[in-house]
Structure formats: structure tokens, C-alpha cells
Specification:
Elements: H1 11-78, H2 81-103, H3 108-125, H4 132-216, H5 230-280, H6 288-320, E1 327-330, H7 331-341, H8 343-349, E2 352-357, E3 361-364, H9 366-383, E4 389-396, E5 400-406, H10 441-451, E6 455-459, E7 466-472
Parallel strand pairs: 2-4
Antiparallel strand pairs: 1-3, 4-5, 5-7, 6-7
Helix pairs in contact: 1-2, 1-4, 2-3, 3-4, 4-5, 5-6, 6-10, 7-9, 9-10
Length: 475
């Protein structure tokens, strides 16, 4: 299929042209079939009329011959001139019927034999009266020869009719086969044409779908330029304008978050410093109740500072996700490195961490993919009960490399599954005696995995939580 080129026509106009082409092709075949069938019907009608004419002429020839014999023999016996004229009239009618049969295809040989026999009978009719009886007997003998000639003519007429019927039937069969082939070829061409036009016209919509999916996945650095019908190109331009607008809004949001975060950090640092001075008694000794208030202020200031720093980290992660530094990376070794880096945490938690799978090399950003694995592993350690196991499994799938992180913790509440990757969202099932998380770890995981062209999912399990990372693999 050739590449789709730009067109000044709209999709609706091109679709109309496609319908006209297919409809014209089918209508042309149908019209040709009707014309051919009409021609065959006319030929059939003509052949039937010719057969009827031949049969009637042969019957007329036989009847006229009988009348000729009666008139000739009576004229010889009675010597009546009127009967002789009647003989001549019947002979003329018989000759006319014979000539019609010759025009319809009868062999001229029969006409010559018949005419010669008629002349010999006519010669017998002339003569003296005293020889009339002898001539009458001679005429009777010659008319018997006439019967033989007429029988031959009738037989050839019947064969001629059979041959014509056979020929007509063969032409009908040949025409039917030809029409059948033409209809099948037309239907095949129409199907191919419809399929090709369908693919040709549907291709830009697949690209539009991919472009919209890219916008939904925040891939804003890929220009949208879709060639095709005029209305598809207009929509492509509008989508590219939307992409640029989203890029501007994303940049504005990042700048706003940075500015607000930095603006908040300065007064917050002053508040924390002032609270620390109050707790140290620099401004005077505090009462027990005042110390409790100062402690609450100090705690909330620390929480607020942690939230601001988490916001800055998420903003930085979203920005860095677009700047991948890919290099061939041994993924199994990367998993082992992340497990080793958090050995103190999972040993202190009293859990066992294992890595499964065969070595797989993939061009990725090792730092960002390592952050993804580290966040998922840290999340699993946080929720895993003492004595349980955490498994990191690496395997190849259809065109992807999958990394599974499984734990035996409480899992994710069903009502939280749809929002688990939202920034700053924390689920209902929090581990006891553990500090509250910021809710950005899984959001950063999703940003970094999407930057690699992959996806991360929370798989359904009977117990615990299982996250799966899927990264495209061309090999």
C-alpha cells in the first residue's frame, strides 16, 4: 500500500468517491449482464421463430405435395385444365415453402432435386388423351419419389433445428460462464478496492488515535503532523496546537511549583527557626502547655517542609523523565544492585528479598530505571510483614521485558486501585507504626517508565501487591 499523501479533499468527499467507484464498477457489470442477457433472449426468440418457420415450411411442403399429386392425377384422368392450374398453384406454394427453408439454412441440393422432380412430373402432364392412364401411373410413381425427397428434406430440417438448438445452448452456457467469471472478478476487484480504500482512509485515524494517546501519556515532545484528507490535516494541526499549549501549561506549572515551593521554603525556615528558639528558651522559659504548643508547631512545620520538598522532587522527576540517557544495561544486575542498596532496610524489617530471572540487556537509562525499581522495592519493604518474602522477577514477554515486584503485605484496597499512581495519593491500608509517606513514589515510577515507552501496572492478586513494569524490547 503506498504511503498516504496529502489531499485537498475531505474525508467525506473521498469516501463518496470510493462509494461512486465501487458502485460504478458493480453497476457497470450489472448493466453489461442485463445487455448480454437481453441479447441472448433475443437470439433465443429468433431461433425459436426460425425453428417454427422451418417446421411449418416442411409441413407446408408435404401438404402441398399431396395436393399437387391429387390435382395432377385427377387432371390426367379427367383431362381438366382447371385441375392442371390447381396443380401449378400448389407447386408454386410448395416451391415458396422450399425457398423459405433454403433461406433458413436448408441445403440447396434438396431444392435442386425437388425442382428437377417437379419438372419431370410437369412433363408427364402434357401428352395425348389416349396415353393419359399410362402417364397417370408414371406420375404416381414419380410422386412416390417426391415422398422420398420430402422425407429427406424433413429429416434435414429436424437436424438443422437440433443443431441450432445445440449451438444456442452452447452459446448460452459459454455466456453464462463468461458472465459468472466477470461477476466474480468484479466482486473481487470491488472487495480489494473497498479493502484498499478502507485501509487508505483509516490509516490517518490510527495516527490520530496514536497522537491522542501520546498526548494522554504526556509525550509532548513529539510533533503531530498527520498527512491525509483536508479535514484530517486540520484536526492534526489542532492537535499539534493542543500539544504546544499543553507544553506551555506544563512548563508554567513547573515554574509555578518551583517558585511557590521556594517562596514557601524561606518563610517556613524562619518559622522553624523561631519555633526552635522558643523550644530552647531563648525568649524566656516556657510553661508545660507552651512547650506542647511549640512541639506541635515544630512537628507541623517539619511535615510542611517535607511536603514542599516532595513537591519539588516530583516536579524535578517529571522534568527529568523527558531527558533519558540510554545505555546498554544488564537488568538482572540492576535488580541485584537495588536489592543490595536496601539490604539494611529489608533486614531490619525482617523480610527476605529474592531476585529471579535470566540476564537481559536493554538500552535504558540505568539511573532512572534503578529509581523505579528502588521505589517499588522500598514500597514493598514498607508494607511487607516480618517474616514474609519479596520477589523481584525478570522475564521476556512478547516484544517487552517485564519486571515484577511482589510482596506479601496487605495489598491495595479495591477502591484505591484506580488512583494508586496519582501524585500525593496515599491508600487506606497504611502499615502501623510507620511514618506517613509522601505519595509521590509510585507517581515517579509511572513518569520514568512512561519515558521509556513502557507502562507499569498493579496486577490483581489473591494476597499482597504485585507491580509489573513492561519496557519495549526490539530483540
Amino acid at each position: 500500500m503506498p504511503a498516504l499523501r496529502s489531499s485537498h479533499f475531505s474525508f467525506r468527499q473521498l469516501l463518496l468517491v470510493a462509494f461512486i467507484l465501487v458502485g460504478g464498477l458493480l453497476a457497470g457489470t450489472a448493466l453489461r449482464s442485463v445487455v448480454v442477457l437481453d441479447r441472448l433472449m433475443a437470439q433465443n426468440t429468433s431461433a425459436a421463430a426460425a425453428s417454427t418457420e422451418l417446421t411449418a415450411s416442411a409441413q407446408t411442403l408435404v401438404e402441398r405435395t399431396v395436393d399437387m399429386e391429387r390435382a395432377a392425377r385427377q387432371s390426367l384422368i379427367l383431362g381438366d385444365a382447371v385441375l392442371q392450374r390447381r396443380f401449378q398453384e400448389e407447386a408454386d406454394r410448395a416451391r415458396a415453402a422450399l425457398q423459405r427453408m433454403v433461406r433458413e439454412g436448408l441445403s440447396p441440393h434438396h431444392e435442386r432435386r425437388w425442382s428437377t422432380q417437379l419438372q419431370s412430373i410437369a412433363a408427364v402432364l402434357s401428352g395425348p388423351a389416349e396415353t393419359a392412364l399410362d402417364r397417370e401411373r408414371l406420375a404416381a410413381a414419380r410422386f412416390r419419389e417426391f415422398d422420398t425427397i420430402n422425407t429427406g428434406i424433413t429429416r434435414e430440417v429436424q437436424q438443422l433445428i437440433r443443431d441450432r438448438n445445440t449451438n444456442l445452448r452452447e452459446r448460452l452456457d459459454a455466456t453464462r460462464e463468461r458472465l459468472t467469471r466477470q461477476v466474480l472478478v468484479t466482486v473481487l476487484i470491488a472487495a480489494v478496492l473497498i479493502g484498499a480504500l478502507g485501509i487508505w482512509l483509516a490509516r490517518p485515524f490510527k495516527r490520530l488515535e496514536a497522537a491522542i494517546t501520546g498526548l494522554g501519556q504526556n509525550r509532548l515532545d513529539e510533533p503531530i503532523d498527520i498527512q491525509g484528507p483536508a479535514d484530517v490535516r486540520r484536526l492534526s494541526q489542532q492537535l499539534d496546537w493542543l500539544r504546544l499549549r499543553l507544553t506551555e501549561l506544563d512548563a508554567d506549572k513547573a515554574r509555578f511549583l518551583r517558585h511557590v515551593s521556594h517562596e514557601l521554603k524561606t518563610p517556613l525556615a524562619a518559622v522553624r527557626e523561631g519555633v526552635a528558639l522558643l523550644e530552647e528558651g531563648v525568649a524566656g522559659e516556657l510553661s508545660t502547655r507552651q512547650r506542647e504548643v511549640a512541639r506541635i508547631l515544630h512537628h507541623n512545620a517539619a511535615v510542611l517542609q517535607e511536603r514542599i520538598e516532595a513537591l519539588l522532587r516530583f516536579n524535578a522527576a517529571a522534568f527529568e523523565a523527558r531527558q533519558l540517557r540510554r545505555q546498554p544495561t544488564e537488568l538482572l544486575a540492576l535488580l541485584h544492585d537495588q536489592v543490595e542498596a536496601q539490604r539494611l532496610q529489608w533486614q531490619a524489617q525482617g523480610v527476605q528479598v529474592t531476585v529471579e530471572g535470566d540476564p537481559v540487556s536493554l538500552p535504558v537509562d540505568p539511573q532512572k530505571l534503578g529509581t523505579v525499581v528502588a521505589n517499588l522495592l522500598s514500597n514493598a519493604i514498607r508494607y511487607a510483614p516480618a517474616g514474609s518474602a519479596i520477589t523481584l522477577a525478570l522475564r521476556r514477554a512478547d516484544g517487552t521485558v517485564a519486571i515484577d515486584v511482589r510482596d506479601q503485605g496487605p495489598g491495595v484496597a479495591p477502591e484505591d486501585r484506580e488512583r494508586i499512581f496519582e501524585p500525593f495519593f496515599r491508600g487506606r491500608r497504611q502499615p502501623p507504626d510507620a511514618p506517613a509517606g509522601t505519595g509521590i513514589g509510585l507517581s515517579i515510577v509511572q513518569e520514568y517508565v512512561a519515558a521509556h515507552g513502557g507502562r507499569v501496572r498493579l496486577l490483581p492478586t489473591d494476597g499482597g501487591a504485585q507491580f509489573r513494569i513492561e519496557v519495549p524490547h526490539a530483540g
